[in-house]
Amino acid sequence: MSAGDGGAPAGPPAWAKPGPAGALTLAAFFDGVREGRLVVQRCLTCRALAVPPKAVCQECEAISWEPAPLGGEGEVTSFTVIRVAPGRLAAEAPYPIALVRMTEGVSLLGRMVDNALDAVRVGLPVRFAPPPDPSADPPVITFRPR
């Protein structure tokens, strides 16, 4: 239920809208994150990886995909420290958010855990970690130093 709507159900979040039949949806991507897995799309024509899920391949314009599990390892390519956090994360600020280039070549934005704020740096090797609260909607993608 959402506030101010007279008690009507809020419906699914915008990111949970269904995609084309057989395609990986953002909802399915986040289900994988909840389960401790990173699964993206691989184009069946040119083998390019895509995240978030897309209907059309940006490389070759094909529309056929297969799931592609990622190994979970990558390297920080950029980061920032969130000092004023949104809603459910406000009490946890400050915390670092990093752009991570995965070994397979795609990049993901996620929260750094299990390290001091001043320990995060460009080039830091990291590994995907299961979200601290899998019931969060959507779950927070997290990384920890290797």
Itemize the secondary structure elements and their pairings.
Layout: H1 26-34, E1 39-43, E2 49-50, E3 65-69, E4 73-82, E5 95-102, E6 107-112, E7 125-129, E8 142-145
Parallel strand pairs: 6-8
Antiparallel strand pairs: 1-2, 1-3, 4-5, 4-7, 5-6, 7-8
State the name of the first-level CATH class of the largest domain.
Answer: Mainly Beta
Strand composition percent: 25-35%
CATH architecture descriptor of the largest domain: Beta Barrel
Average pLDDT, rounded to a whole number, is 86
pLDDT under 50 segments (min length 5)?
Answer: 1-5, 12-22
In sequence order, what are the helices and strands, one letter per element? HEEEEEEEE
C-alpha end-to-end distance = 41 Å
Q: Which term fits the overall shape?
A: globular
Radius of gyration using CA atoms only: 17 Å
**Domain count:** 2
What report would you give on this structure?
The termini are far apart. The protein has a five-stranded mixed beta barrel. Strands 2-1-3 form a three-stranded antiparallel beta sheet. Strand 5 and strand 6 form a beta hairpin. The chain folds into two domains: 14-69, no CATH class; 73-145, OB fold (Dihydrolipoamide Acetyltransferase, E2P), CATH 2.40.50. The chain contains one helix and eight strands, in the order αββββββββ. It has 146 residues and is mainly β.
